[in-house]
């Protein structure tokens, strides 16, 4: 009963925050409400027994998306206010479609019919890790993760083609010293998440997102100035996740029999391969997300 | 045992009161400085009371973790409050300046 | 059981709210936020479907969790790309 009350409050809060973010007059309010929405989503994932997602959402939805949206908001400051369009036409249409979708929800069976979860449980001992989500991500469906790293790289390359110049924020002593205090802590926690991912909720994505938020904090406080695309080793870090993945795939193809499938690890060294690939993937995800969020410092103009 | 439980629930209720007061302040105060004041100070204290109340009902390890979380939230709340106040270009409103005199 | 349908309904309503914001706008930034709300609704639908085994006392469906985890990271990178394009658009409009 208490749990149902919690669910009701959480769902109402999620819907209210999303609705207010979509309908509020000022864009600043919309962005702020959207960030609050991200935090509440993390709570919802935790409630729905998805701790991996809650960890990732807390780092991404509350940290990185907030920094991204506020950066975009700065650019809107110079724009004139937009007129508020009429509501009734979209409301009628979308309300109709949503009502139909809601009515169709009763068709969803309560018993899951898919055999895949049982298969995951059955093959978990051979995967090299004991946490099913990590096993799926880095062993059973390693293709997805490989291509996901490629998508991240493509997003970064695309964003680099559209540089926009932003007013640089001069650091302030209090926030700089706090960022120096906070970043080793974030590094520690992300390393812990990466290591724990083999047996418990955690892994490359959560660790990478958390590390990225730490790097973003440092970069916004005028530190880590070497962390830009121009630096050779930074580029190598960004590519490192993909390279480590492909190399691991090639080596395990050579180590296995002729009929082996691409990106299937030999059972005896699966744990080690997953840890190596995850470490490089964490660094790649962290650096890529950081570069996506904070962009490039302008090369010539120094803050004198 | 039951006395501990009662103290714990009392602390939890008190913490919620502070959260409520901070949120009302956030909604009702006239300018951004007093809003910041309300939300950071009251929420930090409220969170501390919640942590204290919950740690009475949990093991010492969980209590220590929650206390650490409270420390970090307190410090980052203080820093972000100062940052927001520093970079908001709003002047303090009439009523707020009068109260300072 | 009741919570299951509650979260399913919330997921669908989130998609609806996001669709409303996507249609109505008016700013491009709000449309990008709306796309993210739609994405959150779809993720919630998947995670709620993955929750079904929990009601029978089994662990949740890890394949769906892994898919949503990948989706979260892809969504934030796509948002960053969209915002970079938006920034370019706004600086050119000046």
UniProtKB/TrEMBL annotation, chain A:
It comes from Alishewanella agri BL06. It is found in: Cell membrane. Belongs to the CPA3 antiporters (TC 2.A.63) subunit B family. Residues 179-289 form the Na+/H+ antiporter MnhB subunit-related protein domain. The keyword Nucleotide-binding does not apply. Coiled coil: none annotated. Residues 12-75 form the MrpA C-terminal/MbhD domain. InterPro entries: CPA3_antiporter_subunitB, MnhB, MrpA_C/MbhD. It is a multi-pass membrane protein. This is Na(+) H(+) antiporter subunit A, Na(+) H(+) antiporter subunit B.
UniProtKB/TrEMBL annotation, chain B:
It comes from the Bacteria. The keyword Membrane applies. InterPro entries: PhaG_MnhG_YufB. The keyword Transport does not apply. GO terms for molecular function: sodium:proton antiporter activity. Pfam families: PhaG_MnhG_YufB (PF03334). Keywords: Membrane, Transmembrane, Transmembrane helix. The chain crosses the membrane at residues 6-27, 64-85. This is Monovalent cation/proton antiporter subunit MnhG/PhaG. It comes from Alishewanella agri BL06.
Automatic annotation (TrEMBL), chain C:
It is found in: Membrane. The keyword 4Fe-4S does not apply. InterPro entries: NUOK/Mnh_C1-like (IPR039428). The chain crosses the membrane at residues 6-25, 32-51, 63-86. The keyword Transmembrane applies. It is a multi-pass membrane protein. Its main location: membrane. Keywords: Membrane, Transmembrane, Transmembrane helix. GO terms for cellular component: membrane. It comes from the Bacteria. This is Multisubunit sodium/proton antiporter subunit MrpC.
């Amino acid at each position: 009963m208490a749990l149902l009350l919690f669910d009701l409050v959480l769902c109402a809060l999620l819907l209210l925050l999303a609705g207010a973010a979509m309908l509020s007059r000022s864009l600043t309010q919309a962005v702020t409400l959207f960030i609050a929405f991200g935090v509440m989503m993390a709570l919802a994932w935790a409630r729905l027994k998805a701790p991996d997602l809650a960890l990732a959402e807390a780092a991404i939805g509350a940290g990185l998306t907030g920094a991204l949206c506020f950066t975009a908001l700065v650019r809107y400051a110079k724009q004139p206010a937009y007129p508020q369009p009429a509501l009734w036409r979209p409301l009628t249409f979308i309300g109709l479609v949503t009502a139909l979708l809601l009515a169709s929800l009763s068709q969803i069976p309560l018993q899951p019919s898919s055999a895949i979860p049982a298969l995951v449980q059955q093959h978990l001992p051979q995967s090299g890790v004991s946490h099913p989500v990590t096993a799926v991500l880095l062993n059973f469906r390693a293709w997805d993760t490989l291509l996901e790293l490629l998508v991240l790289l493509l997003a970064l390359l695309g964003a680099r083609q559209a540089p926009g110049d932003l007013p640089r924020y001069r650091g302030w002593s209090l926030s700089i010293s706090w960022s120096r205090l906070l970043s080793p802590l974030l590094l520690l926690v992300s390393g812990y998440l990466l290591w724990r991912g083999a047996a418990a909720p955690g892994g490359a994505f959560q660790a990478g997102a958390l590390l990225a938020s730490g790097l973003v904090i440092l970069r916004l406080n005028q530190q880590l100035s070497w962390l830009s695309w121009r630096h050779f080793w930074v580029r190598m870090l960004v590519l490192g996740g993909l390279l480590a993945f492909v190399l691991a795939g090639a080596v395990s193809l050579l180590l296995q029999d002729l009929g082996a499938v691409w990106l299937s690890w030999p059972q005896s060294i699966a744990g080690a391969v997953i840890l190596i690939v995850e470490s490089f993937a964490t660094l790649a995800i962290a650096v890529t997300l950081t570069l996506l969020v904070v962009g490039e410092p302008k090369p010539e103009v120094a803050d004198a | 045992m039951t006395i501990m439980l009662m103290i714990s629930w009392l602390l939890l209720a008190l913490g919620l009161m502070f959260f409520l007061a901070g949120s009302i302040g956030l909604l009702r105060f006239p300018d951004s400085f007093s809003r910041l004041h309300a939300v950071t100070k009251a929420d930090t204290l409220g969170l501390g009371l919640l942590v204290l109340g919950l740690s009475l009902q949990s093991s010492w390890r969980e209590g220590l973790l929650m206390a650490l979380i409270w420390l970090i939230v307190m410090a980052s709340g203080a820093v972000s409050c100062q940052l927001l106040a520093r970079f908001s270009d709003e002047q303090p409103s009439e009523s707020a300046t009068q109260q300072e005199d | 059981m009741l919570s299951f349908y509650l979260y399913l309904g919330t997921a669908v309503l989130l998609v609806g709210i996001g669709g409303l914001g996507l249609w109505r706008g008016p700013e491009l930034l709000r449309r990008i936020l709306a796309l993210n709300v739609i994405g959150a609704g779809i993720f919630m639908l998947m995670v709620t479907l993955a929750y079904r085994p929990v009601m029978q006392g089994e662990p949740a469906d890890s394949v769906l969790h892994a898919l949503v985890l990948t989706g979260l990271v892809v969504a934030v990178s796509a948002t960053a790309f969209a915002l970079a394009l938006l920034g370019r658009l706004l600086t050119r409009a000046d």
